[in-house]
C-alpha cells in the first residue's frame, strides 16, 4: 500500500518535472528532446507495467485522466498565447525583398496611362465609359463584397485621375 502511494507520488513529481523541463526547452529542440529522452522512458514504463500485469489498469487510469490532460493542454496553450501577446515585440528591421501586401496608393501619384490600365479602358475613353468601367469593377472588388481595400482605392484614384482631365 505504502509502496503504491510512493510510486504514485514519484509519478506525479516526475510528470511535473518533465512538464517543467519541456516548457523551458526551446521550441526547436523539443522534438529532439522528446525523441531522445521521454519516448524511451515511456516505452520502459509500458514494458514494466505489461510485465507486472498492470497495463490494463494503467490504460484505464490514463483514459480517465484524458479530459483533465486535455484541459491542462488547453490552459497551457492559452498561457503561451497570453505570454506572447504581453511580450514586447522587436522593432522591425529593414526588410529585403519580402513579399507584402501592396500599400495603399498615395493620392495624386497615378498617371493617365496607369489609370486607363487599372480600369481596362482604351486611350480614347469618354467620361461615361470611365464611370461605367468604374461601377462594373467596383461591383466586383468592393470591400463589402469580399474585395480588397487596396484595389478599391486604386479604382477610386484611377476614376478621379481620368475624370479630372
Record keyword descriptors for this entry.
J domain-containing protein, single chain, Helix Hairpins, rod-shaped, mainly alpha, 165 residues
Can you describe what's shown?
Helices cover 71% and strands 0% of the residues. The chain has helices at 2-24, 30-52, 55-86, 112-119, 127-141, 149-164. The N and C termini lie far apart (94 Å). The chain has 165 residues and is mostly helical. It has two domains: 2-86, no CATH class; 112-164, DnaJ domain (Helix Hairpins, Orthogonal Bundle).
Brief overview:
The chain is mainly α and 165 residues long. It has helices at residues 2-24, 30-52, 55-86, 112-119, 127-141, 149-164. Keywords: Membrane, Transmembrane, Transmembrane helix.
Helix and strand topology:
Blueprint: H1 2-24, H2 30-52, H3 55-86, H4 112-119, H5 127-141, H6 149-164
Runs in which pLDDT lies below 50 for 5 or more consecutive residues are none
Q: In the residues, how many domains can be counted?
A: 2
Give average pLDDT, whole number: 78
List how many beta strands DSSP finds: 0
Helix and strand run: HHHHHH
Helices, by number, come to 6
What summary fits the major beta sheet? none
Query: Which overall shape is indicated by the principal axes computed on the Cα atoms?
Result: rod-shaped
**Share in β-strands:** under 5%
Structural class: mainly alpha
**Approximately how much helix is present in the residues?**
over 70%
Radius of gyration: 32 Å
The separation of the N and C termini measures 94 Å
Protein name: J domain-containing protein
Domain J: 114-165
Pfam family, one: DnaJ
InterPro entries: DnaJ_domain, J_dom_sf
